[in-house]
């Protein structure tokens, strides 16, 4: 096992790599994965550097393609036998973690004459930007949590914090028999002030969950709870005394950095809270009437986390269960070939959901198709430093179906000089009060990048 320092240094080129991945996935919240090989130091001492280097190469050959497949994740750095990677979606990080463990079990079966290659995996999720710019102070805290969670696991295990579990549990629920989860409770880890709630995901056909051995389980009352308990007891006494109690709402483990992210109630009201991000209990300063409500926060214009809540008259302590919601999208790239024409076709089918203004969930299915076709255009005479050449006629043809009905289908033609500056055009295609579909195309040099994307609309 590679010893990870309490404050893991991130180089500038790694910052740029993370930010490039974040922007490509339209994400301000990332899931960080840490892995390392169990017993790697001992293996090196017993079998030598040549053998351990071979094992590490085989390890990288298994992990890296699974992590980076389809651009869903990105390996940021290797630290000895440890790997640090990021994902834009927690459910994908959970799925790829289980896929890695399955691939390693297959590898070990095929190499039964050698010591088994056992890898432990830790996942943690958190916001990594401030005003849409990478903040290494913010990101560093989440990196340290992910590395400490991984350090609690044994080879073959996947441990994750509550933030990842809460977002990925919908995915887990849909894979009964293939994936299961267990809660191991709260653990105190090095370099982290408050205990972390540790969950484990596993293949129930192969493994049984096992609580961390090396970690210290937190059994005492956190230092802030006595004072919070007194406040709550006083509030309850007032509730019992008054005929019409004032309704109060306190959120437990909110899990949202409210200094950088707005939490909205019922699509219209921004909530204000006492305390600081990360506090176990945070009283809501915004009045919430008794009844059923919906709270949410945006990660980007295509990613949102919703949680239904029920508020009763009097004092309420609520622990939101935020669920990931993502908008469908399709992106295609084409390049004008030398023979004078080119055509590329792209398609994508996605299931997704939205909530309406009455807090009713609507399930949707989107089928998106995009055709990018090029042909030689008009001749541009030679000028200073530029040879005689032709413009390119790009035909962008699209179709967007939602719930079996076509909501937008058309095409347009754009002429572009490959020696001119990049040109970007965005066009609204369709929308309701919940979301809208847009077409964006970028002409640069001899290439065209087209994108059909649904995104959240502003609620009125």
Describe this protein with a few key phrases.
5-stranded antiparallel β-sheet, 460 residues, Alpha-Beta Plaits, Immunoglobulin-like, alpha+beta, 7 helices
Largest sheet: 8 strands, mixed
Helix proportion range: 10-25%
Unreliable stretches, pLDDT < 50, 5 or more residues?
221-225, 235-244
Q: Would you report the number of β strands?
A: 26
Lateral arrangement of strands in the main beta sheet:
2-3-1-4-7-9-8-10
Output mean pLDDT. Answer: 84
Task: Specify the overall morphology.
Answer: globular
Write the layout of secondary structure elements.
Blueprint: H1 12-24, E1 29-37, H2 40-47, H3 49-68, E2 73-79, E3 82-87, H4 90-110, E4 119-127, E5 129-130, E6 133-134, H5 136-152, E7 158-161, H6 162-173, E8 180-188, E9 196-202, E10 216-217, H7 225-241, E11 248-252, E12 263-265, E13 269-270, E14 281-283, E15 291-300, E16 303-311, E17 315-318, E18 323-326, E19 329-335, E20 341-355, E21 361-380, E22 389-402, E23 405-416, E24 423-431, E25 435-444, E26 447-456
Parallel strand pairs: 4-7, 11-17
Antiparallel strand pairs: 1-3, 1-4, 2-3, 5-6, 7-9, 8-9, 8-10, 11-14, 12-13, 12-15, 15-16, 16-18, 19-26, 20-21, 21-22, 22-23, 24-25, 25-26
Explain what the structure shows:
The chain is built from seven helices and 26 strands. The protein is an alpha+beta fold and 460 residues long. The protein folds into three domains: 206 residues, Nucleotide cyclase, GGDEF domain (Alpha-Beta Plaits, 2-Layer Sandwich); 101 residues, Immunoglobulin-like, CATH 2.60.40; 130 residues, no CATH class. It has an eight-stranded mixed sheet with strand order 2-3-1-4-7-9-8-10, sandwiched between helices. It has a five-stranded antiparallel sheet with strand order 13-12-15-16-18. Strands 19-26-25-24 form a four-stranded antiparallel sheet, with no helix packed on it. Helix 2 packs antiparallel against helix 3, helix 3 packs across helix 4 and helix 4 packs across helix 6. The chain is globular and about 75 Å long. The N and C termini lie far apart (53 Å). The relative contact order is 0.08. About 3% of the residues have low confidence.
